[in-house]
Amino acid sequence: MRNPYRAQRIAFFFLFLATLLIVVPVGLIVVIIVQKGLPAISWQFLSDIPRHGMRVGGIFPAIVGTIYLVTGAIIFALPIGLLAAIYLSEYSKDNFLTRIIRLAIVNLAGVPSVVYGLFGLALFVVFLKFGASILSGSLTLGIMILPIIITTSREALESVPQSFREVSLSLGASKWQTIRHIVLPNAIPGILTGTILGIGRAAGETAPILFTVAAFYLPQLPDSIFDQAMALPYHLYVISTQVPNVDEKIRYGTALVLLALVLFMNLVAIIIRYKFRKRKKW
Amino acid sequence: MAKITTKNLNLWYGAFHAVKNINSAFEANRITAIIGPSGCGKSTLLRVFNRMNDLIEGVRTDGGALIDDNDILNSNTDLVVLRKKIGMVFQRPNPFPLSIYENIVFGERIHADGITRDGLDEIVQESLKSVLLWDELKDRLNEPALRLSLEQRQRLCIARCIAVKPDVLLMDEPCSALDPQATARIEELMRELKNNYTIIIVTHNMQQAARVSDDTGFMLLGELIEFGRTEQIFTAPHDRRTEDYITGRYG
């Protein structure tokens, strides 16, 4: 006899199992990296330059380099991405041109990161003569995260209820005033989410910075945006594959710092988002 | 003299002829109800008067819609000035997710540069008093507007309109989200407000039109079938279709 309750229990079990399977790798990654990397973490490791062919010493220049690169990428990508998202969501009509633009954004998100790296090399490093520099690397990373920022910002803008726009216009506000005072403030949590995702992606990627900025070994901090810089993901790649006999704990320690940096930035933005959510509800 | 008149007013959504050749006159300090079954074009007609139909792509109008003898369908009409003068209350109470205070001063902040805090306070007090919310809310002005009841929210929306100092209030089924008691109180408020404003209310609730309005227009399939004193429309309609609708034969 068929027993619908048993079938349901079995279905629930597999649904639960699938959900659990998503959590397991995340948990394992964190556990392994913390376990192997934590012994390396010390004030000296975080604040010192790498020494003895990067086999001892710290990773300070790589941390600073990554922060510079991410900041540069956001400074470049957030304004452009947000303005584009506002245009697409509030002003553009559904015509051939905007459909091409939308398609381009979707495709931009699918371009492999190494291709961005080559593109950055060709355009910023060689053609615009920025050289391998923080500027080139930031711009390359910025282009890479543009689609994320545009897509999530557009979704955030479009999720602001149409009725808010109507009321604002009916009170005599202009379209721009409506966007500025009503639509944007209510879309901030979603825009922040896009920025978070962009930051995480920019901080973690190796390929786009490989040809555009990353220094193999640079014992001092960069002086200007036209200098090369070390960066955490590339440094991790270097000490894991290019330099023999690097202590395992230094490698995992570097990975832990990178992971913590990304998670910390995410956490900050999530808190901001949460505060906005609590304040604004409709 | 009529505050708002329409002359052979037509409106199309693309190929769909939504409002057909309407001639009407809405008088100042009276409440005019527009009734009719769903999709008859009554909301569309209402949205002609503050040009909200402009938001929809492919809308075309011809004929005239005159407010104080100015044809507002003119392409050089200043929509900001027009919409300040013509307030609109929507079907669902829709305060912004801001404080009660900020909701009311929204229009003023946009229109008047550098208005003083005292000036704003005064507007808030006046507006809330005119919708009879001041005593209830005077100590809660900084609370989120979304914490209010539905009825309070709709009153707040009316106050938000009034704060911009319009002459005309367009109400698009303002009570359809409210219970009967709240509806009765909003209707009471409307009677009070008509001393200072020209009110046009769109409703599919015939009893409401009968209770609250001075004049009534009946629309069907985009046409204005009959327009006159409410009493006459409801007791001795001239047109057979009006009578059928009012007696509940369709709609």
What is the element layout, followed by pairings?
The complex is a heterodimer of chains A (282) and B (251).
Chain A (H helix, E strand, L loop, with lengths): L3 H34 L5 H5 L2 E2 L4 E2 L2 H32 L4 H15 L2 H15 L6 H25 L3 H9 L4 H30 L2 H4 L21 H11 L5 H32 L3
Antiparallel strand pairs in A: 1-2
Chain B lengths: L1 E12 L2 E12 L3 E5 L6 H7 L10 E9 L2 E2 L7 H7 E4 L10 H12 L5 H14 L3 H4 L12 H13 L5 E5 L7 H14 L4 E5 L3 H7 L2 E6 L2 E7 H6 L4 H7 L5
Parallel strand pairs in B: 3-8, 3-9, 6-7, 7-8
Antiparallel strand pairs in B: 1-2, 1-4, 4-5, 9-10
Helix pairs in contact in B: 3-4, 3-6, 4-6
Would you kindly provide a brief summary of this structure?
Chain A is mainly α and 282 residues long.
Describe this structure in words.
The complex is a heterodimer of chains A (282) and B (251). With 282 residues, chain A is mostly helical. Chain A has 11 helices and 2 strands; from the N terminus they run ααββααααααααα. Chain A has a single domain, classed as MetI-like (MetI-like fold), CATH 1.10.3720. In chain A, strands 1-2 form a two-stranded antiparallel ribbon. In chain A, a hairpin with a 4-residue loop joins strand 1 and strand 2. The longest helix of chain A has 34 residues. Chain B has 251 residues and is an alpha/beta fold. Chain B has one domain: P-loop containing nucleotide triphosphate hydrolases (Rossmann fold), CATH 3.40.50.300. In chain B, strands 6-7-8-3-9-10 form a 6-stranded mixed beta sheet, sandwiched between helices. In chain B, strands 2-1-4-5 form a 4-stranded antiparallel beta sheet, with helices on one face. In chain B, helix 3 crosses helix 4 and helix 3 packs parallel to helix 6. The longest helix of chain B has 14 residues. The chains are: A mainly alpha (282), B alpha/beta (251). At the A-B interface, helix 7 and helix 8 of A face helix 2, helix 3 and helix 6 of B.
